[in-house]
Each structure stands twice: as C-alpha cells, then as structure tokens.
Amino acid sequence: MGNEKSRFLQVALQAAELAAEVIREGYQGNFEVRTKADATPVTEVDVDAERVIREHIRAAFPQHDFYGEELGREGQGSDYLWLVDPIDGTKAFVRQYPFFSTQIALMHRDELILGVSSAPVAGELAWAEIDNGAWLNGKPISVSSIDVLEHAAVSLGNMHTLADGPGWSDLGRIVARCGRIRGYGDFLHYHLLASGRIEVVIESDVNILDIAALAVITREAGGVFTDIDGGRIDLETTSVLAGNPAMYERIAGMLHPAPVGR
Q1: What is the arithmetic mean of pLDDT over 235-254?
Q2: Residue-wise burial string across 87-123, b where 16 or more C-beta atoms lie within 10 A, e elsewhere
Q3: Which helix (H) or strand (E) is 243 found in, with range?
Q4: How far is the C-alpha of 181 from the C-alpha of 173, rounded, in Å?
Q5: CB 93 within 8 A of CB 27
Q6: End-to-end distance of the chain based on CA atoms, in angstroms?
Q7: pLDDT digits (tens, 9 = 90+) for 100-130
Q8: What is the 3-state secondary structure (H, E, C) of 16-39?
Q9: How far, in Å, are 63, 78, 99, 188, 226 from residue 198 at the CA level?
C-alpha cells in the first residue's frame, strides 16, 4: 500500500484543483443565487465548477459516463460512472463560511473505487482509491480505535427523516451516553472520522453525490460506511451510518435494537 496514484486518481485530483480555482474566485461573493426545484440554492459558481470538472474528465476518459449535481447525467452505459457534486454545501458557500467542498467519485460496475474530497477554502484535500489507503493533505490517515461509547465523539448531519420517525428515541439514547455530540456537517465530519478525530457519523437525509467519495475515503481509512439501516451504498442511498468498526457496531445496535425475546 502506498501513495501511488492511478490515472483515474490523477485526473480526479486535477479536476478538483481546476474546480478549486473557480470556487476560490467565486467565494469573493460576486455571484447570483437562484433556487432549484428542491428549494436548495445554486449559483453560477456551482455550474462553472462542474463544467470544468466534466470537461477535464471527458478529455481524459471520453467513454465514461458522468453524473453531476448541476448538469445531470450523460453517457452511453459505460461500466465507469463519475459522480460529482461541484459544491457540496452551497448554503455555506453562499453565506461565506468554509464548510463546503467538491466531491468527485468513480464507480465501476456499481462499486465505488475512488474518491476525492476537496475543500479549497478550508484547506483540506482528502482522497482514496480502493486497496490503496486514504490520504489527507498528502499524509495517510486511519480511523480511531476508540471502542467505548462514553469516550466516543459522534457527529450528526441532516436528521429530518430520523427526527420524524421511531429512530429518534434510539438516537436520544446514543446522545445521552456518548462522550461528545457535535454536528460538524458536510465533508468535515467525514474527514474527522477518517483521520481518527471522531468515531461516528449519522445522517438520515443525503444524496449519493454528497457522500460517494467520502464513503471510499472512510472505508480505505479502515472505517465502515453503510446507509443508516446497514445497507450498501448505491445510487439510491439517502442516509449514512459510518464509524470505526467497533463504534459502528455499537451504534448500529442502538439505532436498531433487537426485538424483546429475540
């Protein structure tokens, strides 16, 4: 295992840097904000950043399919599908606080094999490729070994669906017992998890484009990354339960306790 980069990863990192240039310039505040059909904001910076990513990847891999947050999906059914969110955390970008990132992942025959998570204003760049470990700002990272709930740090993301269902009381039991509860959000809590600075992330409302790259990074750092019910991550995923192996198992059991008598 080492920091050797495949052609796929080299291109993804180059695309992320091209997007970072667009984003840094736009972050000065000279952009127009409009609201999409799902009531979330989008700016021309989102679109421009996705366009430069798409063009760079297309030039390198013209036969690959592409699925972007702003420009949609295109391709002819290739075994390779690039998943891109040019600015994950547009609300943060619009309000000029640095908790947003560019997410680039590559899926091969429904398996995520590569992830790049670039936060150009926060100064963090994480990447991973299957079977080659995870890296943050050029240094190898791994999840923590903490296995005691009372010592664990848990970060909560978007929670609307969980809050409106029976799992809310289960989450309350976790909150009452764990060592630290925070809501770092977006890319940040996954970077913290993968680099051993927190133990668990829970989110009940996400888009695959938000978390595909982060799934690869977390897993290659030694973590477990599934949906909130323990299911595999795919294009239909809308929730996350991720953690170091010991705390993942503990939290999963508390979110989905076995029926009495079982």
Answers
A1: 97
A2: bbbbebbbeeebbbbbbbbbbeeeebbbbbbbbbbbe
A3: strand 240-243
A4: 12
A5: yes
A6: 42
A7: 999 999 999 999 999 999 999 999 999 999 9
A8: HHHHHHHHHHHCCCCCCEEECCCC
A9: 39, 37, 17, 11, 17
The angle subtended at Cα 226 by Cα 223 and Cα 232, nearest 5°, is: 125
Tell me how far the alpha carbon of residue 149 is from its chain's centroid. Answer: 24
Total Cβ atoms within 10 A of residue 188: 24
Q: Say how far residue 213 (Cα) sits from the centre of its chain.
A: 5
CA distance 95 to 143: 31
Q: Counting Cβ atoms within 10 Å, is residue 181 exposed (0-12), middle (13-18) or buried (19+)?
A: middle
How many whole angstroms separate alpha carbon 13 and alpha carbon 103? Answer: 10
What is the identity of the amino acid at 49? A
Measured in degrees and rounded to the nearest 5, phi and psi for residue 40 equal -100, 150
Please tell me whether residue 63 adopts helix, strand or coil conformation. Answer: coil
Q: How many residues does the chain have?
A: 262
Question: What is the per-residue pLDDT across 36-67, written as a single tens digit (0 to 9) for each?
Answer: 767 676 788 889 999 999 999 999 999 999 99
Q: What does the pLDDT read at residue 185?
A: 85
Rounded to 10 deg, the angle between the 245-255 and 167-177 helix axes is 130
- At residue 19, what are phi and psi to the nearest 5 degrees? -65, -35
Q: Is 231 helix (H, G, I), strand (E, B) or coil?
A: coil
Q: How many CB atoms lie within 10 A of CB 160?
A: 9
